[in-house]
Design goal:
Layout lengths: L16 H10 L4 H5 L17 H14 L1 H8 L2 H4 L5 H9 L27 H11 L65 H16 L6 H11 L10 H17 L2 H7 L4 H4 L9 H5 L7 H10 L3 H8 L1
Helix pairs in contact: 3-4, 8-14
Bound molecules: zinc ion (2 copies).
C-alpha cells in the first residue's frame, strides 16, 4: 500500500536512501522499527546488491508516479551492473516481474571489491543538496564501486572517518551523509585522502558514469569478442597444450605487471599477492574472456583498458 508520508525520490537518489530520509524526519529513534511500516526486508541496507526484496517493496511506492524503467534505471545500480549480470537476472530485472518481490541479485565477487559494501558521499553534494532540498541523500552515482570521484564535482568521494573508522554500511546508527562534514560518531572532520588522480582512474570514473547512465542497453558479448580478438584466440580448447598454456600465463603476468598498485589498493580489498595467487579469478583474463566467468565491472573495465579497447567500450555506450 502506498505510504503517503514517504518522500518522493530526488534526482539520482538511491531507492534505499528514501528510507533514511523518511526516518530522519519521523523524529523516532529506532530505524528498523520505523521503516518496517514500508518493508519487512530491511535487515541489509548496504548498496552491495543489485536487487533485494526491499527494492521491490519500495518500487511499489513509486511505480505509479515514475514507472518501472525509471525506478530501476535512475534509482538503483542496475544500469551499471547490467552488462555484467547473468542474462537471466538481467532479463528479470528489465521485466519488472513479480518474482522480484522475493529475489536477491548480487554481483559476483562483491567481497573483493573495496567500495561495494558501504555508502559513499561527496561533501559538496551534501551541502548543495541541503541548500536545494533541505536534506542530504545517497546518490546512485556515488555508489559505483569502480569510480572514486563525484560525477558533479570531481572531488574524491568520502566513505570513512579516518579517526574512528566509522563507515555507513547500514542505517541503524547514522543514516544520512553529514552536512557539516563531521563524523557522526566522533565529530572528526572527514576529509578526502589527498591523491593525484592518474588518467587510468579518471577513465574508470568516466566509464562507470556512462555505465550507470546507459548500461541497461549494453551487452557484454561485443566486449568479450573484442577481448578475444586482442588476446589472439577466438576460443581456447578445454585442455591447453604446453606452449599455449605458457603463452596464456605470460599474457596474465603482463597484465598483472601492468596494473598499478595504486589502482589495486583503491578498488580491491586484497593485496596484489592475494588477488593474483591463483585462487581468485577476479582479474584473470582467460577466465573472463574464454571461460564465460562473470566478473565485476571494475575487472572488465581494467582488462579493456589494458587491452587498449577503450574505444570499443565507448562506441557501445555512445
Ligand atoms: Zn559532488
Ligand atoms: Zn569518527
Amino acid at each position: 500500500m502506498r505510504n503517503r508520508y514517504l518522500p518522493s525520490l530526488l534526482p539520482h537518489e538511491h531507492v534505499l536512501s528514501v528510507l533514511a530520509r523518511w526516518f530522519d524526519v519521523s523524529g523516532r529513534n529506532d530505524f528498523l522499527n520505523t521503516v518496517r511500516a514500508v518493508s519487512n526486508n530491511v535487515n541489509s541496507l548496504s548498496p552491495m546488491a543489485v536487487w533485494r526484496p526491499v527494492y521491490w517493496d519500495l518500487s511499489r511506492q513509486f511505480i505509479e508516479t515514475l514507472g518501472w524503467e525509471n525506478v530501476i534505471g535512475q534509482h538503483t545500480l542496475f544500469p551499471y551492473y547490467a552488462p555484467f549480470l547473468r542474462q537471466l537476472d538481467r532479463n528479470l530485472l528489465l521485466s519488472g516481474d513479480e518474482s522480484l518481490a522475493s529475489i536477491r541479485i548480487k554481483p559476483v565477487q562483491q567481497n573483493l571489491i573495496k567500495h561495494a559494501q558501504h555508502w559513499r558521499w561527496c561533501q559538496s553534494c551534501a551541502e548543495e543538496d541541503y541548500e536545494q532540498y533541505g536534506t542530504s541523500y545517497w546518490h546512485t552515482y556515488h555508489q559505483l564501486p569502480s569510480a572514486l570521484t563525484c560525477y558533479r564535482h570531481n572531488a574524491l568521494l568520502l566513505f570513512q572517518c579516518t579517526r574512528c573508522g566509522f563507515k555507513y554500511s547500514h542505517f541503524q546508527r547514522h543514516w544520512l551523509p553529514p552536512i557539516d562534514g563531521r563524523c557522526r560518531e566522533c565529530s572528526e572532520q572527514i576529509s578526502p585522502a589527498s591523491m593525484e588522480i592518474p588518467p587510468f582512474i579518471h577513465w574508470l570514473d568516466t566509464a562507470s558514469y556512462y555505465l550507470q547512465q546507459c548500461g541497461s542497453k549494453v551487452e557484454n558479448e561485443p566486449l568479450i569478442k573484442a577481448m578475444r580478438e586482442k588476446l589472439g584466440y577466438e576460443m581456447l580448447p578445454q585442455h591447453l597444450s604446453v606452449p599455449l598454456r605458457a603463452e596464456i600465463t605470460q599474457q596474465q603476468r603482463d597484465f598483472e605487471a601492468w596494473l598499478p598498485e595504486l589502482v589495486i589498493r583503491n578498488f580491491f580489498n586484497r593485496s596484489c599477492d592475494k588477488l593474483f595467487d591463483g585462487t581468485n579469478q577476479v582479474l584473470r583474463l582467460s577466465a573472463v574472456a574464454y571461460r564465460a566467468r562473470i566478473a565485476p565491472p571494475v575487472s572488465v573495465l581494467m582488462m579493456l583498458n589494458y587491452l587498449e579497447l577503450e574505444s570499443v567500450f565507448d562506441d557501445l555506450l555512445a
